[in-house]
């Protein structure tokens, strides 16, 4: 999603959000993430207004093919620091920097070492990378449904390497063990990562 | 005050008696926010240090880490560290990875070199444009090649010369700064003194040009 992104050209506008919208975001974050109110308060104090950074699609030629077009991506920033982002009105994702600080707000999957190289190039994660010995999927009783935002960790590393959206439920991944399991949304070193201030 | 209190506190029995008396009324502690995890980011490639090996500047990352955090360096790049890292990965995959990283690094370096060379070759043009016999505007073109924020530079000029100054597109579609009045010499001085945002622009790459109005233009 953020493989090619530059704030100077792709951002169409910044606005400070209405407090009612902020409140609804706050409540949906509490519902979506594994986070308690106090921690959220610490990340995002009530007094601080959230800025919405809208991103636009540049050329028309992209809109037809690219399902991950930058159209309708909203980045939410706190004092210029990107904090969350969202595609259309889908789930909120934390940015990787936020995720590094609070690693357990999203459920975790892990890929084996062989996959890191591709992961950091922005490839989607295939099932075998997570079902192999170095990988990790949550146990059956904590099955994740398809379409859940997850953090992607890597074998032998302590910090998250990417954020993704599951394409299959974790049990299906085990069963099928083929093809894309998790779609990568944002990864270490992509263009959103390099934006520290917006 | 405090000096008189301190000795009494250091007496052990006093403290012990104080603690039980305190405990019964304590309310359940208020829910504490979780403390953020501190992550050390590499100063060279901006990734968390453990991911440097997948970046495109491993050699420089290693140097930096060795200098600033020798203990971590030891952990990641010592013999055992390398062994532990292998994990489930087969040896040939690992060697392939290393080769890949080296290749990527060389590529990135070449790219950076080329970019640097290009940067050093690019020119900044300060143009004095005659607007009306004794009136001039000054256009500065090419500052963006040296990572100067044009908007900020325009603001700086406006403040310094107390004139209008703006970023405009020239007919070729490139951005340039237009300053009202003839300030070409002053801007040249500012560039050589590296004032504020103009830092890093080499003086030798700056050229002064004069543009006269064509005769019979009006």
TrEMBL record, chain A:
One of its GO terms (cellular component) is cytoplasm. Residues 107-189 form the PUA domain. Belongs to the TMA20 family. CDD domains: MCT1_N, PUA_MCTS-1-like. NCBIfam families: unchar_dom_2. It holds the Pfam family PUA. It is found in: Cytoplasm. This is Translation machinery-associated protein 20. GO terms for biological process: formation of translation preinitiation complex. GO terms for molecular function: RNA binding. InterPro entries: MCT-1/Tma20 (IPR016437), Pre-PUA (IPR041366), PUA (IPR002478), PUA-like_sf (IPR015947), Uncharacterised_CHP00451 (IPR004521). Involved in translation. PANTHER family: MALIGNANT T-CELL-AMPLIFIED SEQUENCE 1, MCT-1 PROTEIN. It comes from Rickenella mellea. It comes from the Eukaryota. SMART domains: PUA (SM00359). Keywords: Cytoplasm.
TrEMBL record, chain B:
Residues 1-36 are annotated as: Disordered. Pfam families: DENR_N (PF21023), SUI1 (PF01253). Residues 124-195 form the SUI1 domain. GO terms for molecular function: mRNA binding; translation initiation factor activity. It is found in: Cytoplasm. PROSITE patterns: SUI1 (PS50296). Residues 22-34 have a biased composition (Pro residues). The SUI1 domain may be involved in RNA binding. Interacts with the 40S ribosomal subunit. This is Translation machinery-associated protein 22.
């Amino acid at each position: 999603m953020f493989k090619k992104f530059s704030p100077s050209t792709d951002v169409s506008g910044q606005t400070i959000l209405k407090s009612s919208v902020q409140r609804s975001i706050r409540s949906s974050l509490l519902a979506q993430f594994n986070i308690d109110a106090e921690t959220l308060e610490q990340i995002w104090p009530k007094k601080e207004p959230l800025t919405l950074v809208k991103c636009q699609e540049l050329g028309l030629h992209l809109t037809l093919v690219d399902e991950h077009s930058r159209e309708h991506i909203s980045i939410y920033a706190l004092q210029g620091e990107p904090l969350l982002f969202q595609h259309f009105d889908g789930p909120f994702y934390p940015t990787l920097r936020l995720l590094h600080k609070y690693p357990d707000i999203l459920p975790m999957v892990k890929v084996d070492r062989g996959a890191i190289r591709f992961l950091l190039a922005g490839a989607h994660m295939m099932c075998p990378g997570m079902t192999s010995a170095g990988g990790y999927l949550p146990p059956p009783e904590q099955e994740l449904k398809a379409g859940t935002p997850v953090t992607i960790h890597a074998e032998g590393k302590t910090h998250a390497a990417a954020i993704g959206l599951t394409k299959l439920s974790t049990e299906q991944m085990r069963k099928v063990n083929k093809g894309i399991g998790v779609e990568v949304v944002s990864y270490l070193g992509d263009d959103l990562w390099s934006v520290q201030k917006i | 005050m405090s000096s008189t209190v301190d000795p009494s506190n250091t007496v052990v029995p006093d403290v012990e008696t104080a603690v039980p008396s305190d405990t019964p009324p304590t309310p359940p502690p208020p829910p504490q926010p979780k403390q953020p995890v501190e992550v050390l980011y590499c100063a060279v490639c901006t990734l968390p240090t453990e991911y440097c090996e997948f970046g495109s500047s491993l050699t420089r990352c290693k140097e930096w880490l060795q200098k600033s955090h020798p203990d971590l360096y030891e952990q990641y790049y010592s013999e055992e560290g390398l062994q532990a890292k292998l994990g489930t990965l087969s040896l040939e995959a690992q060697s392939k990875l290393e080769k890949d990283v080296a290749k990527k690094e060389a590529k990135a370096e070449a790219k950076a070199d080329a970019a640097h060379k290009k940067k050093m070759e690019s020119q900044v043009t300060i143009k004095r444009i005659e607007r009306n016999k004794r009136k001039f505007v000054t256009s500065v073109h090419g500052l963006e090649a040296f990572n100067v924020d044009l908007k900020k530079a325009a603001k700086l000029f406006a403040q310094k010369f107390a004139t209008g100054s703006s970023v405009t597109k020239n007919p070729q579609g490139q951005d340039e700064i237009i300053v009202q009045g003839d300030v070409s010499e002053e801007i040249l001085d500012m560039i050589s003194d590296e004032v504020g945002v103009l830092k890093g622009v080499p003086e030798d790459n700056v050229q002064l040009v004069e543009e006269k109005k064509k005769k019979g233009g009006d």
